[in-house]
Design brief:
This protein has 14 helices and 13 strands. The protein is α/β, with parallel strands linked by helices and about 375 residues long. A hairpin with a 4-residue loop joins strand 6 and strand 7. Helix 2 crosses helix 10 and helix 5 runs parallel beside helix 6. Bound molecules: pyridoxal-5'-phosphate.
Length: about 375
């Protein structure tokens, strides 16, 4: 067997994120069967506590898939063959969802938004009033490829007055941005384990409003693995329909117990403070935020003209042991994306800021001055822990 050459790195990507030590510990416990009284207790507690995170009285379901599985589940459980939908496309994840919907034969109207900007709710309102056949609006809450947060509350006000469901990819938003589903009127909300939940990649979450459940009863897109009707029946008996990701769910239990004890605000505050400090530190170094409406879950910093951003990112990782993400497609080499979710200390942020400055100066001497570096570092050191 060839050795795993993994070298630990400070993981500041918008998912996967650093996992807290207490969670790593529980992940190392021996396997148990999912149909046992002990595990069923954990499973029941987790499903109850997930309702707090989602801000809903409706059941929250766990899929053993990455977030994209939940994106697919949202479509197949609520829509019919040939349905018309409006898909907000403001970056890579919006593109993925619209493409996925087309694969299922949905008639997709793409509402293209300039990368870096949030969707204008009046555009959605206009699209829905000119085409009453639209059955659903799909949008990211945070478009991770551009670090933009969309105005979900405003969108929900609009969709609640129509027959269109509001289906929200909250994968980098749930746990980072308050999105109380019932209060806002979101019809479908999805999330993924490797983002604000601080878990390894591998499970995803989905909840449906009562109006989405009405649709789910008779929706006729093909669905088998992700059929939430079967899952609901099983959950109502205290079981899962398929085998459950026992190790992930035991780890989720640890995270949700903290959330129950400390409240969601504790997560929002820490993530929000890291985001604000990163934007300010970027500004201090002459690296502005790319997003006009920046999400707290991650920050995209614009690199100076003429810098090879792909090389900078690679050097930050190989020389300084900090993993950041670059830009995709039209943003390739132009931005650095820094995640704020997960188990991140201020020291990690100090290392990250220092490495960004060093790597930029190595490529083009004098890009960032010593004075700029020290003011940026002072900002991240001050973040409330
Ligand atoms: C991470 C992410 C996803 C899910 O991606 P997977 O790789 O399938 O987990 C979906 N949408 C957004 C906005 C994301 O950030």
């Amino acid at each position: 067997m060839s050795p795993n050459t993994f070298k630990p790195s400070i993981l500041l990507t918008p998912g996967p994120v650093p996992v807290p030590p207490e969670v790593l510990e529980i992940l190392a416990k021996p396997m148990e069967h999912h149909r046992t009284p002990n595990f069923e207790q954990v499973f029941a507690r987790v499903r109850e506590n997930l309702k707090t995170v989602f801000g809903t009285k409706q059941p929250v379901f766990i899929h053993t898939s990455t977030g994209s599985g939940a994106m697919e589940s949202a479509l197949v459980n609520t829509l019919n063959r040939g349905d018309e939908i409006l898909s907000v496309v403001s970056g890579k994840f919006g593109e993925r969802w619209a493409d996925m919907a087309e694969v299922y034969g949905l008639k997709v109207h793409r509402l293209n938004v300039k990368w870096g900007e949030a969707v204008d709710p009046s555009e959605v309102e206009k699209a829905l009033s000119t085409n009453k056949a639209i059955r659903a609006v799909l949008t990211q809450a945070c478009e991770t490829s551009t670090a933009v947060v969309h105005p979900i509350a405003e969108l929900a006000k609009i969709t609640s007055k129509t027959d269109a469901l509001l289906i929200v990819d909250g994968i980098t938003a749930v746990g980072a941005v308050p999105l109380p589903m019932d209060e806002l009127g979101i019809d479908v909300l999805i999330a993924g384990s490797q983002k604000a939940f601080m878990l390894p990649t591998g499970i995803a979450f989905i909840a449906l409003s009562s109006r989405a459940w009405e649709r789910a009863k008779s929706a006729n897109l093909p669905r088998f693995y992700f059929d939430l009707r079967k899952e609901k029946e099983a959950n109502d008996r205290g079981e899962s329909y398929y085998s459950t990701a026992v190790t992930h769910i035991r780890a989720l239990d640890v995270v949700l117990n903290w959330v129950q004890k400390r409240g969601m605000d504790f997560l929002y505050k820490r993530i929000g403070a890291l985001a604000l400090a990163t934007r300010e530190a970027g500004h201090a170094m002459g690296l502005p935020s790319f997003a006009k409406s920046p999400s707290p879950s991650l920050t995209a910093l614009v690199l100076p003209e003429g810098v090879d951003g792909q090389k900078v990112r690679a050097n930050i990782e190989s020389k300084y042991g900090v993993t950041l993400m670059g830009g995709q497609d039209q943003l390739k080499g132009k931005i650095l994306r820094i995640g704020h979710m997960g188990y991140i200390s201020n020291e990690d942020m100090v290392t990250a800021i220092e490495s960004i400055a060093k790597a930029l100066n190595e490529q083009k001497a004098g890009t960032i001055s010593d004075a700029q570096i020290s003011s940026a570092l002072a900002i991240v050191k001050r973040v409330p822990q």
